[in-house]
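Weekly structure sync, notes
Attendees: PL (lead), two postdocs, one rotation student
Agenda item 3: pending single-chain targets
PL asked that the sequence for the first pending target be pasted directly into the notes so everyone works from the same version. It is reproduced below exactly as submitted, 292 residues in total.
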Amino acid sequence: MDRSWIRTAVIALLIVAGRPTTGHTHQPVMDMAPRWQEGWGFQVRNEHRFSDELMSGDAEVSNPQGRKRKVNTTWIEGVYTFKRELRLTAKVPWVKQSRVSVINGAAIKQTGTGVGDSILGLQFKHYYNRKESTGNFGLTPSIRIPTSRVGDSYPTGDGSWDIGLSTSFSVEMAWLYQFYDVFYWHNTKGDRGIDRGNEVGLDVNIGLHPYHNNRYNMGIFVMGDLTARYESRGNDTAGTTGGKRISLGPVLVGYWNNLMLRAELKFPVYESVWATQVGRGIDLNVGLGVVF
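Predicted structure, written out during the meeting:
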């Protein structure tokens, strides 16, 4: 059986898994590629989100003081495979953000710019091949390192050392791709009284491969994404943090040889926060990746 389509799928989809959205789950050029010994790759991904929706529990409430939040994060992420079953991953975020918070009854604008907290992961993979499909199981312990600035009025991190564990499963066919990931982050107490809650998450990617050109090794993938999060109650420099949310959205991936371009838009379909907070808002992600 000609398995050239498998390598094509690996190359094209490698940045789909680098998401999200928070950098807490999925591994950069990583859930999917490279699959060969001493392979390496990197991607640059920009995540933008904005919200001025004030919530109490799962209900939107009046926002007379104009509370809002805008976060722009550029992730630089890389991978090295010691062998196809073992790889080291790294993620470093550059954050520029602002928010309007209410402190002691007054609306105050807070800002923060700089490096966020970096993440290192060691990913173990088990692969299998069948007649019409190939897939793998993954286990990834991770550590979040306090490389951020905590002195800004809106800190780009919390100054804590945190540990995480992710389990994943993916399967690929000539026309269909599926990825499932469940993860847990144990967040410890940081600087300036920041103490965010622990987090549990589920990510699902399912997509079709409607076009591929063998001559130029180029094509597109159309994906659907589901993101679910639960974060226990905690606090940062502006007040209470944590809650529950589910987001859905489309993902479009284009590839040419070993270059990839990915765009993703996610909309919240359910959200409930502890106490009163600004909601998550819409997430827009655009990424460019390469693998060798």
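Discussion points:
- The chain has one domain: 4-291.
- Residues 111 and 154 are 5 Å apart (CA to CA).
Action: rotation student to compare against the earlier draft before next sync.
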